[in-house]
Design brief:
This protein has helices at about 1-15, 55-70, 75-80, 85-95, 105-120, 135-140, 155-165, 185-195, 220, 250-260, 260-265, 270-285, 290-305, 330-340, 370-384, and strands spanning about 30-35, 40, 100-105, 125-130, 145-150, 170-175, 200-205, 230-235, 245-250, 310-315, 320-325, 345, 345-350, 360-365. With about 375 residues, the chain is α/β, with parallel strands linked by helices. The chain starts with a helix and ends with a helix. It has two domains: about 20-50 and about 290-384, Alpha-Beta Complex (Aspartate Aminotransferase, domain 1), CATH 3.90.1150; about 55-285, 3-Layer(aba) Sandwich (Aspartate Aminotransferase, domain 2), CATH 3.40.640.
Length: about 375
């Protein structure tokens, strides 16, 4: 029976230390969480600037709901594209330096829409091996020839591009890799895209709002121009503190995506109240140097605190600070021991990361206190 097969596979996941567990929080997103009646310091969320529960965003969302309602009522191309959506797209274009932007419901839906709209059966995609699942799924959906290059290996990518006779070529990469926290070599990727006449799509889910001047993202961090062949995808549910995503690029390319990206065309537009909250968020991000500086201080405090222990931190300059454990069960044991001390740090295991690289994924926020981080450092040093 199919039910028995499913249960058997669930049991196998449990035995391998790979079964995920969902928890329900009783407090808003923030450093302090309450789960099952227990208070925990959370190092789990992607709320890097501490905006998810910021009073300014809350008031903007409330005012937006009063003025525009809660739902959009239709897809953007029917009757769901309201003034807050149009204003947000314009402000995002100005903020990122691109000609136009297009809003999506989530980053996952953005990637699933963009890639198949740009390439198809006779084309080729060149993707970093550590790309996010949404990019991997987008390539499969496009039916283009998929060629994956070793992580951040520009020489390998150059060889693949040189050997390709595909009609259209698309280079695909995370900007900040979500499980390692390191940055893609964006200047080299753009140079290869220019030389081999390829599109370059960058997923900056974890860099937008955090990196670059005024938080304008990883492209600004590297001081790259808004090149015509460059497409920039940013999510709005992480550092921006709300929900949704956008893609920025050349006006003609964005026009094309508006006509061909199925995950844009065939879904209801996001809440106008959320768009109003995001307009307020953009202002806080632009003026958020103090928050970004605070985040940098916390990163240094964590790395300095764990120096000299057996814990191996990956060379990440971002809010994502992975602590490599290796074994799945050992990683779960350490995460459980931290939980007993009132610290919530997720255990990340395959298939999210390669086999043998299970890890604790410490996510820092500008809203963490020195005392909260010291509590985590002390606990990890004790467990080491």
């Amino acid at each position: 029976m199919i039910w028995d097969e499913l249960q058997s596979e669930l049991d196998a996941l449990q035995a391998a230390g790979l079964r995920r567990k969902r928890r329900t929080l009783d407090l808003p997103c923030g450093p302090q969480a309450r789960v099952d009646g227990r208070s925990l310091v959370s190092f789990c969320s992607n709320d890097y600037l501490g905006l998810a529960n910021d009073p300014v965003l809350i008031e903007a969302a409330c005012a937006g709901a009063r003025n525009w309602g809660v739902g959009s009522g239709a897809s953007h191309l029917v009757s769901g594209h309201l003034t807050p959506h149009a204003t947000l797209e314009q402000k995002l274009a100005e903020f990122t330096g691109f000609a136009r932007t297009l809003l999506f419901s989530t980053g996952y839906m953005a990637n699933l829409g963009i890639v198949p709209a740009l390439v198809g059966r006779k084309d080729a995609v060149f993707a970093d091996r550590l790309n996010h699942a949404s990019l991997i799924d987008a390539v499969q959906l496009s039916r283009a020839d998929s060629q994956r290059y070793p992580h951040a290996d520009l020489a390998a990518l150059e060889r693949l591009l040189a050997a390709s006779s595909a009609g259209r070529k698309l280079i695909l990469s995370d900007a900040v890799f979500s499980m390692d926290g390191n940055l893609a070599p964006l200047p080299g990727l753009l140079e290869l895209a220019e030389r081999f006449d390829a599109w370059l799509l960058i997923d900056d889910a974890h860099g937008f709002g955090v990196l670059g001047a005024q938080g304008r993202g990883t492209i600004a961090h590297f001081r790259l121009p808004a090149a015509r062949r460059l497409l920039y995808m940013g999510t709005l549910g992480k550092a921006a503190g709300a929900a949704g995503a956008f893609v920025a690029g050349d006006a003609t390319v964005i026009d094309w995506l508006e006509q061909r990206a199925r995950t844009y065309i065939f879904t209801t537009a996001g809440s106008p109240a959320t768009a109003c909250a995001l307009l307020a968020s953009l202002e806080l991000i632009a003026a958020g140097d103090e928050r970004r500086s605070r985040l940098g201080q916390l990163i240094a405090q964590l790395r300095d605190g764990l120096a000299g222990t057996r814990w191996r931190l990956l060379p990440s300059p971002t809010a994502i600070q992975p602590v490599i454990i290796g074994d799945n069960h050992e990683t779960l044991r350490i995460a459980s021991a931290l939980h007993e001390r009132g610290l919530w740090v997720p255990a990340i295991r395959p298939p999210t990361v390669p086999g043998g690289t299970a890890r604790l994924r410490v996510s820092l926020s500008a809203s963490h206190s020195d005392e909260q981080l010291a509590q985590l450092v002390d606990a990890l040093r004790d467990l080491a």
